[in-house]
Design a protein that fits this description.
heterodimer; A: about 130 residues; alpha+beta; 2 domains; 5-stranded antiparallel sheet; globular; B: alpha/beta; Pyruvate Kinase, Chain: A, domain 1; 6 helices; elongated
Chain lengths: ~130, ~290
Amino acid sequence: MSEGFNIEIVNPERSFLIKENVSEVVVPAFEGEMGFLKDHISIISFLKPGIIKVFTGSDEESFYVEDGIVEFKDNSLSILTSHVFNIKDADKNQINSSIEDAEKELAKDEIDDQKKFLLNNKVEVLKSLKFN
Amino acid sequence: MASLDDLKKRISSVKSTQKITKAMKMVAASKLRRAQENAERGRPYSEKMNNIILNLSNSISDKENSPKLLIGSGEDKVHLCIVMTSDRGLCGGFNSNIIKKAKSYFQKILDKGKSLKIITVGSKGFDQLKRTYKDNIIEKISFKESKNINYFDADKVGKIIIDKFEKKEFDICTIFYNQFKNVITQIPQEQQIIPLKTSDTTSNSSEDNYEFEPEEDEILSNLLPKNISTQIFKAMLENSASEQGSRMSAMDNATRNAGEMVDKLTIQYNRSRQAAITKELIEIISGAESL
């Protein structure tokens, strides 16, 4: 038996990441960060904008996601998201423009609290990326 | 009988048509490969999405209060049909097959006395439907400018649909597209997306016990709008693969027909040339004989 579990990150265009034997994954679930270890109970939850951290042994990879659904079942973790990128390949200009877009959206009056919360979150996370 | 010169002209014109159709076939073949790859890569997402929704909807205890997108508005009066076609022609029966399927569905609805609204995605569908169903078309969408199919476009269509649903402009939504099976077979599909049909997947094991965070209905109400965009996106991917496949086989046929035509015309040309020569010979011989 292996020590870890499988992870798959899928976006509409393709399978973004398939990895076996990861030891720990931390995802930005809607109600707070959520860590997954092997033999986690089956769970479905959804994500807010944030960073997914994937630990394999001593390696660590980070991905930015905008939204999505996580499903954990039988030691395989599926993350469905419409927008994801590896933080290593992040493009500064792109980040800046998405911050601007989000701030513009925030300035509108008609958005509801939940959306506001998500957008604030997005801006915060993106800004923290920019300074790293 | 056509003169030799006319025949020559026709042969060369058919030959140049053949060159064009051959080139189009090549282009379609290379595009098809890409479209097919895209369609295959997009499948895991929509399948996973379907599974999760299935699990969720099975575990919802309070069916009556579940989101409207899942159970529908409870009525069956106004049908919205999304007809997805291509933006370009010359692809065999691709567009007409979808339209045929859609038209028979429209007829069924109208016969039952229900009202019909149509959104066309892709300009060819609009062109074909505007003659008969001009008043029913409420919107036409075309993604001519975007080079590749992307999720962003599908999301736009999805948002339009959800927006209309929330304004109670329709009760039932069906999409029409071509499912790609292989290069020569594309199957026109009708798929109901609102309310969602979950009965067709029976393989689901009911022993899955999930935890949900937050509550089921909250996840579900977040997920369902996404699912609509996902289904549209899937339909767009399937459609683009089908379009290229259909175009490829249509152009292949056209090239072959042009080849046959060139052969026939060449025979005719040779015959009439031979006839002219023979006629000249006879004239000379009979002239010589009469001396």
